[in-house]
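Dear U.,

For the methods section draft, I wanted the exact inputs and outputs in one place so we can describe them consistently. I've listed the two proteins in the order they'll appear in the manuscript figures. Please don't edit the token lines directly; just add comments below if something needs changing.

First protein:
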Amino acid sequence: MINIAPDIRQNIAGCRLGVTVIRQASVRGTSPQLRQEFQAIKQAVATAYNIETLTRVPRILAVRNMYKRMAIDPSRYRPASEALVRRVLQEKNLYYINSAVDANNCCSLKYLVPIGIYNLDKVEGEITFGIAKGGQYEGINGRIFSADGQPVLMDAQGPFGNPTTDSTRTAVTLGTSSLLSVMYCDDAIPESELTAMLQGTADMMTAYNGGKIEWSGIIQA
């Protein structure tokens, strides 16, 4: 499904990707039920954590350490999950996008790990998770992301996904029917916990987007 390149293995020997492929999905606007669940998760996050000690939370710390092992400053290139939590704690808005992106953000907030969601129909050829040697893409945050030296998902066209920000090329939009969910983590999270997180993410994605799970599993370096 996704090949983990040798350069990732050298830097993060325990790298793990929690991957789910969903076909025949129906991405739509954010339903009242999903908005309600999103608000409940945000409230739980706001109650459980504070900004001063956030970087000492075990899962947040584990992802930051993963970045550091690749010589990437996690305060400059903020892991997407940590960025979401910080917005909640700083009482900044989290905007509703669509049923897939919002369900994905719910899971990232809940599990405190970066999770990318991609339109699999926009991916060309085999996918590799590796350290990019050059290249850039337009990020979903509207900025140009320089991929050089960053851990990225790459296909035949080049890099398209990263634990900090993803590309517009493979962004999930209304009407997307093939979803690829990728959870980025390492062996700091026990396999039993990661399996439960993967199942929880698959359940939430299909609950709000329908579709059938074609494949779900953990890919290890």
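Second protein (the one for the lower panel):
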Amino acid sequence: MTRDPLTRNPNPQGKGLVPVLAHWHALRPHGAAAKGPAELLLDLFASTLVLSARCDLRPVVGQRYYLYCDLGRDLERGLDKDDSGWRLSLISPAEWGERAPGRCLGPCWLREDMTWALDAEASLAADAGLRERVAALVQDFLERLDVDGPLEFQLPGYHRELPYYRRLLAAGLGASLRQSLAAAGASAVPARETLRLGAAGLRRVALTAPQPPGEHAKPCDASPGTTGDTPGKQPL
């Protein structure tokens, strides 16, 4: 039988069933806990920003990556954009030197619950261009969630059109935040109520003002294990 060339291949990257299941197991959320409105919005914003970035590698839990932004590109929003101007890299700004793919927003890492932590405080304090770009993204993010119905309906899911690992990570993120909502007894809470309770907290952290030296700020290209892993620290 000749295959219809117009029939869409459900597995265009040629992943066999066993590797797919193994990757999904590795990227399933573990330890998702109850979260308040501000923390949940912060995790959703930071994670979808990282997942919108071009990424040519398989993210590993706990590994330090760096998020770069090409401010010369027009603002593109959403997980489904082919090139949002953001790029996720293992290479620090110091290692890139003048060849860096953009301005570094900060180091980030994947947590076991499949949300992303992003330590952008120092870069936002020092770089007006990045502050302006992130402010626009935060505003767009909040407007997209200003809808009728539960926040649960607005969370990421399985997007067939996404590249393979981003597809799994988006599904894992959505599952994690749904578990957090359920643990908090907030699965049916309207999205607008979550915004009312948590939007100010998101803006305060995502658009942080400069902090006293040594108290919170840290260099973007800090070496692994020296920043962002301190218990109690609340990165993006």
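Candidate sentences for the figure legend, describing the second protein: The longest strand covers residues 103-110. The beta strands are 64-69, 86-89, 103-110, 116-118.

Thanks,
Y.
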